[in-house]
Amino acid sequence: GCAMDIISPFSLYFSFDLIFFEGQIWRLITTFLFFGMFSIDFLFHMYFLVRYCRLLEEGDFRGRTANFVLMLIFGIAMMAMVAPFFSANFLGSSLTFMMSYVWGRRNEDVKMSFLGLFSFSAPYLPFVMLGFSVLLGNPVTMDVMGILVGHSYYFLEYVYPVVAEIRCWSIKKIMQPPKLLHWLCGTYNEHIHLHQD
């Protein structure tokens, strides 16, 4: 829409004042949908976002739609809270890096290759992407923010429950989707059966 001048990027960018004082709530979503005008950088981010979003959905989150939506909500909320401190306008690249970070950490044994030049393990994917992004002339702030938010999610979803179980803490799992989210995602019945067993 922006490439064809149907929509102006000025109506999409993240602005704390416009969202919370002017009521332009849509900016909380549209800031994640704009990756710049059509370019190599645009293709780079779109490819990685779609690819790793799909791989997470089909892998770790298969049959756990509410958990996947909770991950997106967590990422969007964290980035929206941090964005004003970095004067961030568009957060799409941060979301891309968050997805690739979580996927990489959950697929540690997968070997990858970057443009056939060198091989690396999946956990290093976001850092290889970061290097490529720098080569394209992009600032690292948004990408590093995505990596940090991805790491926060990974810790709360996969590391904390193991530590809580070992140390016998009363709260075993923090990233548990509420029943309403299960109902909205159509996984409420599976959620009930899982907790009854």
Automatic annotation (TrEMBL):
InterPro entries on file: DER1, Rhomboid-like_sf
One GO cellular component term noted in the UniProt record for this chain: endoplasmic reticulum membrane
UniProt cross-references to PANTHER family, sorted A to Z: DER1-LIKE PROTEIN, DERLIN
Name of the protein this chain belongs to: Derlin
Keywords: Endoplasmic reticulum, Membrane, Transmembrane, Transmembrane helix
Signal peptide bounds: none
GO terms of biological process kind: response to stress
Key word Manganese present: no
Lipid bilayer topology: Multi-pass membrane protein
Role summary: May be involved in the degradation of misfolded endoplasmic reticulum (ER) luminal proteins.
Protein's organism: Eucampia antarctica
Homology family: Belongs to the derlin family.
TM ranges: 25-48, 68-92, 112-136
Keyword Disulfide bond: no
Location(s) in or outside the cell: Endoplasmic reticulum membrane
